[in-house]
Amino acid sequence: MKTTWILTTCFLLCAACGGEEEAGSSSEGSSESTAATEEEPTTEAPAEPVACSVDGEAAASVEDPTFELRASVVGPYTAGEAGTFAIELTPRGGYHVNQDFPTSVRPCGPTAVLLPNADLGNGDAEVRTEERARFQVPFTANEAGEHRVSAVVDFAVCTPETCMPDQRTVAVLLPVQ
Question: Which residue, 111, 114, 158, 113, is CA-closest to 133?
Answer without folding.
Answer: 158
